[in-house]
Specification:
eight-stranded mixed β-sheet, homodimer, Rna Polymerase Sigma Factor, Chain: A, Rossmann fold, two-stranded antiparallel sheet, HAT_MetX-like (chains A, B), 12 strands, globular, acyltransferase (chains A, B), alpha/beta
Chain lengths: 370, 370
């Protein structure tokens, strides 16, 4: 699980202050860029990634070999056009793909593990802003993100209002709901119940908490898909048997149904690329996220000083961060007088729609970044 | 976890044939009754329990001391009136409260554990019908059930059409959806990932797979509640600290939010009264449930021979078995010409509404049983 990354890295020149009151020394941010930075440094777009995402936005993931997670959106001539824009994507603080997180070495030469401080979405954004400082980018053409990436985009608008001229937040929310927290708590308990977790000190052990992390991913994965999408994709169809014969109920506990097999595959694949402690820390940051609370309990206040233009996008089949959550942000932006456009797109894929083939999203993204 | 039950038990006089093709010898069914059986044996109502329910319908649970799970519905003068009806509730085959299940001793004197055969909802119903035979009850006044209890009620109507004059199925479905299966699979994987599960052979061990079972219960519990119910009950409210001071974010991994604390409590409480292997077997039975598939792929066929009257009830906030699933059953009953009434009730509690204070449900139940 050592970060096998060819990314560029930026060691922060100063200690990073955190919402907890602590400060973190020696932070490194790993990032990828696509497209040329204009001489006047005005054409940069920062794309923020989701919970289990990374900086490999439009280039192959070095561990899985899979294409970048938003290749369909980012590239020459694509909606986020790298012929025009300099696109930056950085691994968030607390993650495990080259930026400082619980698997990183602390000053004593040992992994932080659970000594890593609990961070927030705003702390992640502080790391991103420090990177922008390092890259001498005073104002982004846009900050863009889906899901947790959208939380970062909104947090940047609220806390660093001059750093982005445009804010595009997709399939996201300004606060985690009780149900959102509940699902994350199930995942954390699954990880921490795994004896191989060892209180977080598994880095020097022979085994890692793959079983717990896999269960966490399986539970979360269900929330990323719509009920109707699952029905369409899998229904109650049975898995073909290993010998190639058509599926039949085994009257056992093998993966009889295709949906079981799919979930197991999602769970185990995830454990090969993600650190369990990072999963704990990042889900915690998301659960703590409540942009109104940070700003005197009123979401409108969060955006009061913002000169940016906003665009919010939700999906009608997203039950993790449903349209009502985006509307809530839009109403707050209206109240604070910010220019905002909002669209609910119809797509069958649930929360994951922002990553998948939804041509209407391409048009919205392209149009907003003009 | 030895069944500490004061229930009556009925040892089946014959081997129980199962859908798997196997047969189970020496099956015992544990049950409770409330109210007097009429001389002509015509006033019996069978109430079927849900996944983690039991026969303690209207009497205290012997392990937890808590009131029966449907005390609000069953008793003298209540909607299921024990002054008029003889009410029977039996622990289902595969469970762990006195009826034969994986924790029971096999012929070799050792617990079945995973040697227990995989059973189906129809197999559970076969066990219930065998009990009715033993009690010399040829036709029930009604069979009643919510959730998995409703599946049993529908299965009895389909497979033993003369055994119940009335069929009341609440908050249920005629088939498990891909999403239903997915959530159950997460729970099973959580249990089987727990090293204390020991391939199911934990009965003689010092520890049991409580961590895995607890995670399974937490994940399932979220599906029993509505998003808005969770928000109303917990929102993002923080837990008071142990010293009594008002809650604050701990910037750690304790249960900061009330919803986290609640879920942990639900998970750990459950492990004190339920057997992990029973959870595996019963969830499997539910996932296998597809009443149409059993009847040539057409749900109408399932009810073609039924002389019973039906009543279906759904709740508008139930996203586990949403109203569409009940409607699907109603359409099939209409197609087969069976008399059926259907109502979607408005209640904020999600799937669990059938167990909670919904006066409209009381009226429907009382009216249908007249």
């Amino acid at each position: 699980m050592a970060p096998q990354t060819a990314s560029q890295t930026y060691p922060l020149p100063a200690s990073l202050p955190l919402d907890s009151g602590e400060a973190l020394d020696g932070v490194t941010i790993a990032y990828e860029t696509y497209g040329e930075l204009a001489a006047d440094r005005s054409n940069a777009i920062l794309v923020c990634h989701a919970l289990t995402g990374d900086q490999y936005l439009a280039s192959p993931h070095p561990m899985t070999g899979k294409p970048g997670w938003w290749e369909r959106m980012v590239g020459p001539g694509k909606p986020i056009d790298t012929d025009r824009f300099h696109v930056i994507c950085a691994n968030v603080l607390g993650s495990c793909m080259g930026s400082t997180g619980p698997a990183s070495l602390a000053a004593d030469g040992k992994p932080y593990a659970m000594r890593f401080p609990v961070i927030t979405i705003r702390d992640m954004v502080r790391g991103l802003v420090a990177l922008l400082d390092g890259l001498e980018i005073r104002q982004l053409h846009a900050v863009v993100g889906g899901s947790m990436g959208g939380m970062q985009a909104l947090s940047m608008a609220a806390n660093f209002p001059t750093r982005a001229a445009r804010v595009l937040a997709i399939a996201t929310t300004a606060r985690h709901s009780a149900q959102n927290i509940a699902f994350h708590e199930v995942g954390r308990q699954a990880i921490m119940a795994d004896p191989a977790w060892h209180g977080g000190d598994y880095y020097a052990q022979e085994t890692r908490p793959v079983a717990g992390l896999s269960v966490a991913r399986m539970a979360a994965h269900i929330t990323y898909l719509s009920e109707s999408g699952l029905t369409e994709k899998f229904g109650r169809r049975l898995q073909d048997r290993p010998d190639g014969t058509a599926g039949a109920k085994s009257f056992g506990f093998d993966a009889d149904f295709q949906v079981e097999s799919y979930l197991r595959y999602q769970g185990s694949g995830f454990t090969r690329r993600f650190d369990a402690n990072s999963y704990l820390y990042i889900t915690r940051a998301m659960d703590y996220f409540d942009l109104a609370e940070e700003h005197g309990g009123k979401l409108g206040n969060a955006f009061a000083g913002s000169p940016a233009r906003f665009c919010l996008v939700s999906f009608d089949s997203d039950w993790l961060y449903p349209t009502a959550e985006s509307r809530h942000v839009v109403h707050a932006l209206n109240a604070s007088g910010a220019p905002v456009s909002f669209v609910e797109l119809s797509a069958p894929f649930g929360h994951d729609s922002f990553l998948l083939d939804v041509p209407a999203l391409d048009r919205v993204v392209k149009g907003f970044l003009e």
